[in-house]
Amino acid sequence: MRVKFTKMHGLGNDFVMLDGISQRIKLSPEKIRRLADRHFGVGCDQVLVVEPPRTPDADFRYRIYNADGGEVENCGNGARCFARFVRERRLTGKRQLVVETAGGILQLNLLEGDQVSVDMGVPALEPEQIPFIADRYADTYPLEVDGEVYTIGAVSMGNPHAVLLVEDVEQAPVNTLGPKIENHDRFPQRVNAGFLQVDSRTETRLRVFERGVGETRACGTGACAAVVSAHQRGLVDDTVRVRLPGGTLTIHWSGPEQPVTMTGPATTVYYGQIIL
Ligand SMILES: N[C@@H](CCC[C@H](N)C(=O)O)C(=O)O
């Protein structure tokens, strides 16, 4: 099978985008792993597939697969790239889009230049919604890893996130503690682990060890979850800049029951064809 693809990224979180409307694509976890492989395939953190919507209220459905082959619920940087992709590939002429994901409905707005703003929906904070094993909701939870107790926030942006505060994000044990949190048995569907440094009420820095991938240059849902968790702890204002290794996102959240808005760039790198 020969498949046309577009290579894109959102702040260095990179994607293979597939148009599943104009071409027939049959994917398997093995094929996704091959596409994502940086030596034997194209190479990416996530494979994103655009399909026709299943509900009349949405313009498209977009499906998200981690580099390990598993399908997941949401991807913030991917959502911005999706909006740019469907315009560039002339699948729509709209600048405001509604898209269905496995984690819920997202509303997207193509702004000037390369910027895209996304209504990421209302974060879920109850443990069973994340899912996270805890007796009841709390702003923070103790989490034991190898005999040490860490304080985490737990947030779902459609997909699960644990958020740890750190003093110096450069020195944070992202690649050693990250995988242990990702696979912690209190997160039955595994989790994305964010390490957040709060510099002021409007400026933060974040590194994320992503479920099914490892540390990425940026994580959109991770940035949303980090701001929600810092807001719940009373540390930040409603509008916060999140500096990630690949660049900066602006996140807005005004509190419980409110949706999170994420704004940042989406970049097209090249077009290609691959034999799958
Ligand atoms: N990079 C993404 C998140 C992709 C999914 C994540 N790894 C998961 O397993 O939930 C983003 O920008 O949000």
Which terms would index this structure?
276 residues; alpha+beta; Diaminopimelate Epimerase, Chain A, domain 1; 18-stranded mixed sheet; globular; binds the ligand N[C@@H](CCC[C@H](N)C(=O)O)C(=O)O
Characterize the largest beta sheet: strand count, sense, and whether it forms a barrel: 18 strands, mixed
Q: Any ligands, ions or cofactors bound here, and which? A: the ligand N[C@@H](CCC[C@H](N)C(=O)O)C(=O)O
Radius of gyration: 18 Å
In total, the number of strands is 18
Q: Taking all residues together, what is the mean pLDDT? A: 98
Tell me the number of structural domains: 2
Alpha-carbon distance between the two ends: 5 Å
Count of DSSP helices?
Answer: 4
Structural class: alpha+beta
Instruction: Please give the CATH architecture of the largest domain.
Output: Roll
What ranges have pLDDT less than 50 throughout 5 or more consecutive residues? none
Binned, the helix content reads: 10-25%
Q: What is the succession of H and E elements?
A: EEHEEEHEEEEEEHEEEHEEEE
- Annotated CATH topology of the largest domain: Diaminopimelate Epimerase, Chain A, domain 1
Any idea what the CATH superfamily of the largest domain is called? Diaminopimelate Epimerase, Chain A, domain 1
Percent of residues in β-strands:
35-45%
